[in-house]
Amino acid sequence: MSEVRIRPRQVLVLIIVFIFVLMMVHRNGKHTCQGPEYLQAMYSQSQANKLPKIYAITPTYARPAQKAELTRLSHLFMLVPNLHWIIIEDSNTTTSLVRNVLLRAGLEKRFTQLNIKTPTEFKIKGKDPNWIKPRGVEQRNLALAWLRAHADVDHHAVVFFMDDDNSYSVELFAEMMKIKPGRVGVWPVGLVGGLMVEKPLLDEDNKVIGFNAAWRPERPFPIDMAAFAISLDLFIKYPQAVFSYEVQRGYQESEILRHLATRDQLQPLANNCRDVLVWHTRTEKTKLSSEEALIKQGKRSDEGMQV
């Protein structure tokens, strides 16, 4: 039997090939995405640093379902690489419960946790003593103040008011990345306003000419908070754009948009407003009658836990 000899040059070539294969496997395992095309494109653009940042503003408040709803949203942030979450608690301090949700999702460098309490006094001009201040006004305005002070205004970014009880498709955030500077992206929202879907109405040139809203259609912008996202440069250009207690219920969307854009600046997205990628869902009020009975006995089912 003849003896097979491997020359040093052959060994070197084999080592180089082996190292190259390892590098390719590592690169593919780390950066590729096996999801739908829009998600693959998102990750591809993220590697090239071409994605606009999306600032998602979420007011939240303590309630039994808070952690569950924030956990659901945090899983979206795991999938969208360019999201920065500004989460504002309606409380006198930030809480460990909210922070733990963010950290557990691996979002250490991708969130800003703020807090401000909604005032309880009823000193707004002309308001009935039984009038309740709407949630989210103080919190969203604090987030806008943070953005104007800290956001990188030299790079295109998008601002989205992301309530914690809605249901969002990841594809919606891929659509937001198409929003141009100086524009407001709009799209349909499912299960809102007494309709299966509220949506912008477009003409043959795909320009927004109206809305199909059934509730208060006379509003300047009769759409839901989840129905639009705004180019960051508009908030920098118009620092007076904030939410207000001085407007009627259901007019907060119109209040913020009237400062920033006309209908001509609305950019229809989601397949020219034919696809529904967000739903105005609400969590059923948690029933805790058995828990209340335990509390009367000085006990709790969640003793030492964050549920």
From TrEMBL:
Annotated positions binding Mn(2+): 165
Listed GO biological process terms: carbohydrate metabolic process; chondroitin sulfate proteoglycan biosynthetic process
Group of enzyme by EC: transferase
The keyword Glycoprotein belongs to this UniProt entry's keyword annotation: yes
Keyword line: Glycoprotein, Golgi apparatus, Manganese, Membrane, Metal-binding, Signal-anchor, Transferase, Transmembrane, Transmembrane helix
InterPro entries cross-referenced by the UniProt entry: Glyco_trans_43, Nucleotide-diphossugar_trans
Chief place of localization: Golgi
Protein name: Galactosylgalactosylxylosylprotein 3-beta-glucuronosyltransferase
Organism this protein belongs to: Drosophila busckii
